[in-house]
Specification:
The chain contains no helices and 7 strands. The protein is mainly beta.
């Protein structure tokens, strides 16, 4: 529905489909009902629904293929976590958060 499969479509799939641009080198993934995240070669990638800025791409535009999260996370990322309206990442031992922050998450 939101492009969470990351294959440049909104089509439902009942079998696994490869995520566009993330064929090799992925070391971490996370997903929730509206968006997905991955780490490839230390860079955080995001795709899917972005109504609260949870993709971290500098806008609230939703996307159906992986896009690198803003420059702050373009190297050294080791883990990601997808929550409903926000996302988290670990870079060099420090936690970064982005998206909706109305509850102080």
């Amino acid at each position: 529905m939101y492009g969470q499969h990351g294959n440049n479509t909104h089509n439902e799939s009942h079998t696994p489909v490869p995520v566009t641009n993330l064929f090799m080198g992925v070391t971490a993934i996370a997903g929730l009902s509206t968006h997905s995240l991955a780490v490839k070669n230390g860079v955080a990638y995001a795709w899917g629904n972005n109504f609260a800025g949870q993709l971290g791409i500098g806008s609230i535009t939703s996307i159906t293929t992986p896009l690198a999260v803003v420059a702050a996370l373009n190297s050294g990322v080791t883990a990601v976590s997808a929550m409903y309206q926000y996302s988290l990442a670990i870079k060099n031992g420090m936690v970064y958060g982005w998206g909706l922050n109305d509850s102080g998450h």
